Amino acid sequence: MKITDVKVIVCSPGRNFVTVKIFTDEGLTGVGDATLNGREKAVVAYLEEHLVPLLIGRDPSRIEDIWQYFYRGAYWRRGPVTMAAIAGIDMALWDIKAKAANMPLYQLLGGASREKVLCYTHAQGTNIAEAVEAVGKRIDEGYKAVRVQCGIPGLPDVYGTGAKTVTNNAIDDAVPHEEVWSTSKYLRHMPKLFEAVREVHGWDVELLHDSHHRLTPIEAARLGKDLEFARLFWLEDTVAAEHQEGFRLIRKHTTTPIAVGEVFNTIWDARLLIEEQLIDYIRTTCVHAGGVTALRRIMDFASIYNVRTACHGAMDMSPICLGANLHLDLWVPNFGIQEYSGYLPQILDVFPGAWSLDDGYLHPGEAIGHGVDIDEKLAAKFPYQRAYLPVNRLEDGTLWHW
């Protein structure tokens, strides 16, 4: 079998997605997600100008060799643009390989380790009352685990707290929206939020919280300690993780489980965190970490150190990425949980898939390949529109982590 053509498809059915579609001389095709939120066209250029020309004529079954060729062969390794581009190709190649084997991807990986995949979704509010009500609605929908975010008194709406649930929307975010942050106000308010949620909804629901990289290690340690009473499933992205050693300080002061990794691109971003067991959940995802090939390695490495998987699953990744993640989730022995924020209806129309959600659990389905495709004609009706993620400033105007 030989690769005969590769398409890079960009569409925006409510937000922007980059899709790689690979064609072969035996009629099999595969699709992969190469979306990098807010920098989509950078990945498109990397693919079209540098990687796609080198794929034509290659054997698509040689996935490992192709991955190494694009990673090691470029000399300039790692980084979000490079790894998203490689990921899109890698997912498409695994899709083709599973189709050639006439089996769903998880079977090709070694078969299922569980019957279904526990997921968590999001609940938020501009104040505590709204957040508590939102958690109740998610419980009524069948979710067993809920990430809870809440507005902070004295601050305008920030990520994960207001009425707007879709970030990087092409209509609203043609230029970056600027948010305002106060760590001291946030740290004082979060224990009140989880006191209220536990009082109303009890202890049968797993609760999660995302700090979105905005704290220092000692601030994160304080928050983790202050929230120990709520027995969180995890505290996510407490600090900007470029300085992995900073997690040692967090670990010394709290028993609240720690999750991180949605912005990681390779195992090197998490090596120390995993080896020293400074985290409990690794949140890398197919599209940002180099595809199925690379994510499987990260998952195996994490298993040695009792770190569980928890793939990022926000709407900035297409349903193709979610489908690939779910096959890995069903297979991986050290699975923890899968994020699922949901998709706009038109996104699901453009990316029809075999995966399903039932009573708080996901399943990748039994379709051959990874089970998700792209409707190219429908995708063409949603052209790319430049859009940005927000940026964040402290109350005095200092640019801060978003």
Automatic annotation (TrEMBL):
Taxonomic superkingdom: Bacteria
Pfam family, one: MR_MLE_N
GO biological process: amino acid catabolic process; carbohydrate catabolic process
Gene Ontology molecular functions: magnesium ion binding; mannonate dehydratase activity
Domain Mandelate racemase/muconate lactonizing enzyme C-terminal per the UniProt entry, residue ranges: 128-257
Similarity section: Belongs to the mandelate racemase/muconate lactonizing enzyme family. GalD subfamily.
This protein's name: D-galactonate dehydratase family protein
Native organism: Aliirhizobium smilacinae
